Amino acid sequence: MSERIIYGANTVAHALRHQLAAVLRVYVQQGKESRSRHEQLLGSLVDTPVWVEKVSADDLHALTGTNKHQGIAVALVGNEPMDEHAALEYVAGLTNPLILILDSVEDPRNLGACLRTADGAGVDLVVTPRSRGAGLTPVASKVASGAAEVQMCARVANLARFIKGLRDLNVWVIGTDERAPTMIFDAGLTGAIALVMGGEGKGLRRLTRELCDTLVHLPMQGAVESLNVSVAAGICLYECVRQRR
Fold this sequence. Notes:
Strand content: 15-25%
CATH topology of the largest domain: Alpha/beta knot
Shape: elongated
Number of strands: 11
């Protein structure tokens, strides 16, 4: 049975409220278990089989890979993303799906921020490539603030083939590119849509761009030439939400 680690008071609280059955252990830093927030979280486990283990700050650092763990972490039953085949089957059963594809987003913080926004916007599926893409690390889970535990995700071996599979399911694939002639606000976003965001600095890969049914851009009216991918994803997704209302 695989495990993954999440950390931080808010993220742990979300897991204990919504995914208690998947929680294996809670790690709390020695000397911080009496903090009011930690005390409240640990108190909720009194009548549960979840094991609470007191560890040192160094142990928590080694476990989470960061010193920003806020004195608490949780081991969860591994929540593996769907593969390409399962993801396409899942999409085929949806009505009017909204899908977010992240092409070569390599920073786990950007992945976490995108997952948080995707959950808020009601995205049905977030898709990342198995290579050239960030995985669901503790850092990504922390930034996602609970969204990583509930957002449906897929990690595919061949992103180009997956996009072709979406098109076969009559999903309209919309890529974001600063050179596109159409603004996101002028595009029709009410049908079955896959929104494709490019990676940090490089944007969409050539083949990914060529497989999109259409390309859109965000208007940039200041000195900067582009936005962070998670910010751009948020703007685009909530334009989808606005139109779909």
